[in-house]
From TrEMBL:
Keywords: DNA-binding, Repressor, Transcription, Transcription regulation. Residues 3-58 form the HTH deoR-type domain. This is DeoR/GlpR family DNA-binding transcription regulator. The keyword Transcription applies. The lineage of its organism: Bacteria, Pseudomonadati, Bacteroidota, Flavobacteriia, Flavobacteriales. Signal peptide: none annotated. Pfam families: DeoRC, HTH_DeoR. The keyword Disulfide bond does not apply.
């Protein structure tokens, strides 16, 4: 194994696990601990990890995180995230809304991807701050403490000045008659601003969000370019969306 490949694996291990021991890395990569220590020193100097006694830790503190053990339908959300990554290209300007599905998307971004990402989700901004090649722009405002996203007129105004290639919207509900709806008024306003700022609108929805309606409108179905679920695109549950000319992945 070449040094660069080995060091890429080390960076990935630290990003996923937040802290790893030199002994663990040596066993995993089948090299000596001296080799691992040299790698950690080099990666520390590059700012990709932080070397500590006995191993390495992430370069940032995990100030806020979802308890992944209680994330509903984690496997399905991961499938959605992997599908969504295929739509992102180098050089894109991307807007990502909040929620655990989009957090999974942030974690799936390839480490060599070069892009600019706007987000008003604190957990997603913290996750992306570890990405070596993504420029992260966090849109500040009033914090919604339940969902850990910023809301309010400042967020809407900031988004009005953005010109994005694509946005990824996590949704509370979607149905044929009403399109996207949300349970929170302020969040619905922010999502509308996302849509206005973006050339392509991609909705990420686990199948339990289909054919459901919440109190506040976000956008109609014909404003959506792509709907991504964990289902097979030809699943009968998606048939009516296909009939409305919504691309499904």
């Amino acid at each position: 194994m070449q040094k660069k490949e080995r060091q890429d694996i080390i960076v990935d291990e630290v990003r996923v696990n937040r802290n790893v021991s030199s002994n663990y890395l040596a066993e995993k990569l089948k090299v000596s601990e001296d080799t691992i220590r040299r790698d950690l020193n080099e990666l520390d100097k590059k700012g990709l990890i932080m070397k500590v006694h006995g191993g390495a830790v992430s370069t940032i503190q995990k100030l806020y995180h979802y308890n992944e053990d209680v994330v509903f339908n984690k496997e399905g959300k991961n499938i959605i995230a992997i599908k969504a990554v295929s739509l992102i290209e180098d050089g894109m300007v991307v807007i990502i809304s909040g929620g655990t599905t989009n957090l999974m998307l942030a974690r799936q971004l390839p480490k060599d991807l070069k892009a600019t990402v706007y987000t008003y989700s604190l957990p997603i901004a913290m996750q992306l701050s570890e990405h070596p090649s993504v420029e992260v722009i966090f849109i500040g405002g009033k914090i919604n403490k339940k969902s850990m996203v910023t809301v309010g007129i400042d967020v809407v105004q900031s988004l009005s000045e953005v010109v994005a290639d694509i946005c990824f919207i996590g949704v509370s509900s979607i149905n044929i008659a009403n399109g996207l709806t949300d349970e929170g008024y302020e969040v619905s306003l922010v999502k509308r601003a996302m849509i206005t700022a973006s050339d392509k609108i991609v909705v990420l929805a686990t199948s339990n969000k289909l054919n459901v309606r919440q109190n506040y409108n976000v956008c109609s179905l014909n404003e959506i370019n792509t709907l991504i679920t964990e289902l097979n695109p030809n699943d009968n549950k998606l048939r009516n969306y296909l009939l409305q000319n919504v691309q499904t992945i």
